[in-house]
Amino acid sequence: MQAPVLVLNDSLTRESGTKVHNANIQASKAVADIIRTTLGPRSMLKMLLDATGGIVVTNDGNAILRELDIAHPAAKSMIELSRTQDEEVGDGTTSVIVLAGEMLHVAEDFIEKKYHPTVICRAYNKALEDALAVLDKISMSIDVNNRSMMLGLVKSCIGTKFTSQFGDLIADLALDATTTVGVDLGQGVREVDIKKYIKVEKIPGGQLEDSKVLKGVMFNKDVVVPGKMKRKIINPRVILLDCPLEYKKGENQTNAELVREEDWAVLLKMEEEYIMNLCAQILKFKPDLVITEKGLSDLACHYLSKAGVSAIRRLRKTDNNRIAKACGAVIVNRPDELQESDVGTGAGLFEVKKIGDEFFAYIVDCQDPKACTVLLRGASKDLLNEVERNLQDAMSVARNILKHPKLVPGGGATELTVSATLKQNSSSIEGIEKWPYEAAAVAFEAIPRTLAQNCGVNVIRTMTALQGKHANGENAWTGIDGNTGVIADMKELKIWDAYNVKAQTFKTAIEAACMLLRIDDIVSGIKKRQAPGSTQPSKPTIEQEGDADTEQMIPE
Q1: Which residues contact 453 (CB under 8 A, 6 or more apart)?
Q2: For a 10 Å CB count at each end of the chain, is N or C smaller?
Q3: Where are the transmembrane segments (predicted)?
Q4: Which pTM does this prediction carry?
Q5: What is the dihedral of CA 67, 71, 73, 75, to 10 degrees?
Q6: Residues assigned a catalytic role
Q7: Rounded CA separation 173/199 (Å)
Q8: At 204, which helix (H) or strand (E)?
Q9: Cα distance from N-terminal residue to C-terminal residue, the chain
Q10: pLDDT in tens, 173-199
Q11: Which residue numbers in the chain have pLDDT < 70?
């Protein structure tokens, strides 16, 4: 139910305190309800029509909410949570929305009973501190060099995704890619930059099983002169340039006045000699492959092909950086500054292959590459887009483990343990904060409850049995098998979650709930639309509850 809205003449819209809280809570719950069914391995898929009229089929929380067009400001801030979670840890985008929605839902009773929002927020923040302490207590360290354990962890994290039906494939790809680009910074710290140094190349056609991680890079380019330049070179010497191999034009418009006809020939000869010198400086280092981000003139192509050198031009900056990391070359800005150490010798093979109608250049079999390309094949573009989304999540999880090698139980076991511990702690809290603290403990049960709902089992029986097992502190690893809905030991089933994904989910959800609870006014400076032809200023009007348009707030 939307609150009465006072529309003033200067187009300022205000709502009163408790009513605003209720409107914000209802909007947040509506957003949570949209993606609640996409949590867990037995989740539903959503089919979305994007702005360009294309179709997106996915169960990724962030991908779904990104396409929604929502007017309510509280609902918009909820959608931002999912985006933040995706950028920070890459997984848990649905959980964070469901948990934040539940935190606001349990706060509704206290708002009705005239509790001050600051009291509720204080209790929530204390609950967050205690929840993180529980996470530390039940977490378990992992050896990042144990491939089978790492594979099991990545598999369990993407078990809720669409691609889980293809077995180990995506987990294998993600693990290979992240271990390739990982760099040791010393003191046990690893840097894994999956945005910069891992390129996902999607090529429709073939089977998904043909997908692989290349030990090097590939890009959608062919050599400049296919007939004269070699398309396959073993152990190539690679030079990477960031400058044009063509005659340098003046910065400003230049007029040259020639008196004699011979001067024109001299001018042309100077241009040719300039390009010839550039090529000579490059050829001095006996390269097999020259790649530049800028243009390459016909004359430069002639000199290079004459010397048996293959050339590629107008390559993207990001691709050039990846090639440099893969084959050990250094990108040079001026050919006269070239040194022997700038030449990349780490690549085992340069080859141009035709896939479909396009040519792709491969620089592969590199020694210790620090960049790679993941080649994805599949039946259709929609399938490939979904596989790419799942792969990004899997790579983020693998990166998180490499950075923070700690695990917590999955299948709702962590949330139930946190909930049981907070309920026990609530008895020692004095004063008015005790009740919101206890409500926060109940809110954590939203995740296992939603998992049970999506499995199609009896939710009340399952939740009661789980609460009973956790209340007497039997086993912190008891949770729900998301496929069958059976209560089981998560350690035996190898259903795990990354520690920092879970910690980030709790932090984001509770901090966002606190922020929305502390909003007591929505003041809008947007002009109200006037009916066409009406010129007189509208008088202040008060919309009643019956007139309030709730459909403007949330799409169905």
Answers
A1: 36, 459
A2: C
A3: none
A4: 0.78
A5: -50
A6: 60, 93-94, 393
A7: 12
A8: strand 198-204
A9: 15
A10: 888 898 888 877 776 677 788 888 899
A11: 1-17, 167, 187-188, 473-474, 525-556
